[in-house]
Specification:
15 helices; Rossmann fold; alpha/beta; about 375 residues
């Protein structure tokens, strides 16, 4: 995570818990967002980086709305926070490169959602406070107010929030909706992006996503997010287009990629493993090289992609058991390459699109000296 001068800080309100993998992935997704400092208000899990600012507040278990109010007040009183800031939840994810956070609101007016949620749980605190927010906005002359209660990042100005809090009773809540209507933010109307179950027709490649505890832990979207925002280490072939392309493909597919390019795999990777703790990586890839038996034994679960006969022979010779290895000379009836094998794996896991296909084919052809394909016959290259 990098601090970018001149951009708004990012603020999270976090409940007490050390087990918060959604927060871990959400923090990683901030690589897609231009932002300043990162701030956690409430509880900061011990595994969170010391570079992230912590504003501690006393959190009472079961008092969600009271805790949120405390977090707001503590945030507004802290001089370290930028004048404008982006409010996130620990289950919000930035899925695409985002220059600025623009205002977004729900498709229909606020009274529609009061009626909708009242059908599900008429006497809930959420519905009651939504009614109070609606009535107060009407008192202020804001007719037909909108709902800003979307599961997406929202930009706030600190002084405006302070002024709003001076007018809003403590029992109202719904700060997003109050703020959006009071300051006439407007904004694009969108359907909410929170995925509660796998049956929802929400694509994973839109700008923002959100999850429920259940969908993150057990749903397809959670599995996808854990792959998409994985921390990745890749060892690949230096001075070789096939090896370099493997790194580029990994960088296109994932947000946090470190790599080592080498022409002496066993020596260089062994040294790297001696000097670095690789347990923090979610995926380790080895591409377009034979790393040597000691490396493979040290990294039995690494994803290894290679197309050389030497690697096939060594696997047989040493009777290596490598559950995540893809070692083959041909793919789809033609000579393959390490980067094509990695690209195929990324495509099968829906981690990369088709945009790179022609360049992957171009490097495959050059690497295998196979110029009989359509890319060369039709004059593309």
């Amino acid at each position: 995570m990098r601090v970018r001068a001149g951009y708004p800080d990012v603020v999270y309100f976090v409940k007490p818990s050390e087990e918060n993998d959604e927060l871990r992935i959400s923090l990683r997704s901030l690589k897609n967002l231009n932002h300043g400092k990162i701030v956690i208000v409430g509880h900061k899990p011990t595994w969170v980086s010391d570079r992230i600012i912590h504003i501690s507040t006393s959190q009472i278990e079961g008092e969600k709305y009271s805790n949120v109010r405390k977090n707001w007040l503590a945030l507004l009183e802290d001089d370290r926070i930028s004048d404008t800031f982006i409010l996130m939840n620990d289950d919000f994810y930035i899925m695409q490169p985002t220059e600025v956070v623009e205002p977004l609101r729900r498709i229909k007016p606020l009274d529609h959602y009061i009626e909708l949620f009242a059908q599900l749980q008429a006497n809930s605190h959420y519905v009651e406070t939504m009614r109070r927010a609606h009535d107060l906005l009407k008192e202020w002359g804001i007719n037909n107010p909108d709902s800003y209660e979307l599961h997406v990042p929202m930009l706030f100005e600190k002084q405006k929030v302070i002024e709003l809090f001076d007018r809003v009773p403590e029992n109202v809540g719904h700060t997003r909706t109050m703020y959006g209507n009071y300051y006439k933010l407007g904004g694009k109307r969108i359907e909410d992006v929170k995925i509660i179950n796998d049956d929802q027709a929400i694509t994973y490649d839109q700008r923002f996503l959100s999850t429920s505890d259940e969908s993150y832990s057990h749903g397809k979207v959670g599995a996808y997010l854990r792959k998409k925002f994985a921390k990745v280490l890749i060892f690949s072939h230096a001075n070789d287009p096939d090896g370099l392309l493997s790194v580029i493909l990994a960088q296109l597919a994932f947000t946090d990629v470190e790599y080592l390019l080498t022409n002496s795999p066993q020596k260089d990777i062994t040294k790297y493993l001696q000097e670095h703790d690789v347990s923090e990586y979610d995926y380790i890839f080895i591409t377009d090289i034979y790393p040597g038996r000691p490396v493979l034994e040290a990294l039995p679960n690494a994803y290894w992609f290679d197309h050389k006969q030497l690697s096939i022979d060594k696997i047989k010779q040493h009777n290596l058991i490598l559950p995540n290895a893809t070692i083959r000379i041909e793919l789809n009836g033609q000579p393959t390459s390490g980067s094509e094998l990695l690209y195929s794996w990324l495509r099968n896991n829906k981690l990369i699109g088709e945009e790179s296909a022609s360049f992957v084919e171009y490097i495959r052809a050059i690497d295998t000296w196979d110029f009989s394909g359509s890319l060369f016959n039709n004059g593309t290259y």
